[in-house]
Structures are given as structure tokens and as C-alpha cells.
Amino acid sequence: MAKIGNIDLGEFPLLLAPMEDVSDPPFRALCKENGADVVYTEFISSEGLIRNAAKSTMKLDIYEKERPVGIQIFGANLDSMLQSVDIVERTKPDIIDINFGCPVKKVVCKGAGAGILKDIDKMEMLTREMAKRTNLPLTVKTRLGWDEKSIKIVEVAERIQDAGAQAITIHGRTRAQMYKGYADWRLISDVKNNPRMKIPVFGNGDVNSPEKALEMRDKFGLDGAMIGRASIGNPWFFNQVKHFFKTGEHLPQPTMNERINMAETHLKMSIKWKGEKLGVLETRRHYSNYFKGIPDFKKYRTIMVTSDFSKDIFNLFAELKERFGTHKLAV
Length: 331
Known about the structure:
Layout: E1 2-4, E2 7-10, E3 14-16, H1 25-33, E4 38-40, E5 44-45, H2 46-50, H3 54-58, E6 69-74, H4 78-90, E7 95-100, H5 105-108, H6 120-133, E8 138-143, H7 153-162, E9 168-171, H8 185-192, E10 201-204, H9 210-218, E11 224-227, H10 237-247, H11 256-274, H12 276-290, H13 298-306, H14 310-324
Parallel strand pairs: 3-4, 3-11, 4-6, 5-6, 6-7, 7-8, 8-9, 9-10, 10-11
Antiparallel strand pairs: 1-2
Helix pairs in contact: 1-11, 4-6, 6-7, 7-8, 9-10, 11-12, 11-14, 12-13
């Protein structure tokens, strides 16, 4: 039974990863409704928060139906990170998460995200001071190391735990790998099998099928799986994994109508939360997966990802419902 602080997450929870411009409130709500046990916000800049930057503060929006929800912050300056903890606490999340894993250059070059993997002492210090600053459970997300020559993840996880983190999620790649190659779950398993580790160890990276999630649970013995790219345009993924765990069988793929309805709901929620322009723009990345594998669909997908006005997309959804009805499509 996995627990973060006093939050009981059940057996092998499935967590929605914090993904920039993806893990916003509309998408988190859809994933929660479809089986996600914990959802995390997009990562939020501590410097942006303390400057009250609109883009950063908007990411603090959370809703009751999302709980338990974690707010993830990144930064490298202690004072800014502590001020961010105070700001985040006021929005009453269930968990505060520190991003020590983002590989993107603009984050890393400031010594934040995966950049901090070059300075494990600082990583430990930030965790300790932030844990002291809040009564909320503090968790950490990180990678195996900066590159394959500097992997010390067993030691890092131990020090993070001793500094007060109440769970750790490890992406099974180094920063040097970015998202290339394969995630090495064996090294995450080494952390879990360290007898000194008492906090949950969650795995992340390449969990793109129910079988993979089962392998992470049964072969590698981890406490849960954090799902990232496999959930984009596919909020059903969480329930598909849970069904497979229970029955050993795959749920039928969503019908065309179910796909259209989900995409339509997603777009409506996005527009309601962030307005027409951004709502249309930031839902685009999901359409390829909502309609993945459907033959002769390219012309429709092109309209979805190039239309600047929601009315055109809603009209297309209506047309698709008429054309495809409730056909079950083999994908």
C-alpha cells in the first residue's frame, strides 16, 4: 500500500506526470475521471511565482475533483524556492513536488531541473529546507543522473529521503539522454531494493502499455507508475492499465464516438479555463492520439491542428459523429 504522508494511494497507484502545456486542469480532470490516482500540475517556475508572473500563477489553479493533486515547482535559488512554498501552500494542494529532473535547456542552464543533478549537496539542502518550511508532504521527481558516468541515484534517493521527502519519482533516463533510448528501470529498482529506503519509489519513463505497467510492478517491484507521454490524448490509459491488472485482459479501444466526445469535452474545458485562443492552441497536441490509428483520418486531423477558431473544430466534431456514428474501429 503506497502512501505519501497520510495520503493513502492504494496498491500500485498510477500518477499523471507533470508535463508543460499538457497537465493543465482540464486534462488533469479527464485523467482523474479515467483512473489516475494522483495528478501533478505542470511544473511552475519559483522565480515566476515570486514575481507574480501571470503564466506561473495561473498554473496554481486546482479543483476539488482533482484531489489528491500535487503542485510541482522548480528553481535553484533557496530563498525563491522557500517563498514559492509559502505561495503554493495558500492554494491548498495535497502535495508539493520539487522538479529535479526537467532536461530542457532553458531550465537546466539556470541550474534548476536536471541541472541540479550536478550538485547533489544542493539538491539535498533544497529538499531539507523546503520540507522544514511546509506541513504538506514534499515529494521529489528526478532522473538517474546527469549522464551515464555520474549515476549515483541510490545515494541521491537516500539523501533526498533523509532530507524529508516523502516519496520519490525517478525517470529512468539521464539528462544527457533527454527522451531518447530506453528508460532503465533496473536502476530505479536498485533504489527500491535499498534496505534503507522507506518512502515510496515511483517509476517513470516508457510506461506506454498495460503490460509495461505490470512489468514495472511485478518484475521491478516499484510502488507505482508515473504516466507521461502515453496519456497525451489518451486519458483512458489509466483505466486500461487498471482493467488489465484486474483481469489480464485489454479493455476494448474507445469507439469513434467516445473519442470525439472526449476531444470535444477537452476542448470545451480548455476554452473555459484559458480562453478561446490558448484553449484551441494547447489542445492541438492531443488530437493525434485521440484519433490515433484511424485510417484515412489525416485530412480531419489537419483541420483540428490548423484551425484557429473553436467553432470550426466543433463543427468538424459534429460532422464526424454523423459520418462515423458509433462504429467500433479496430486500432
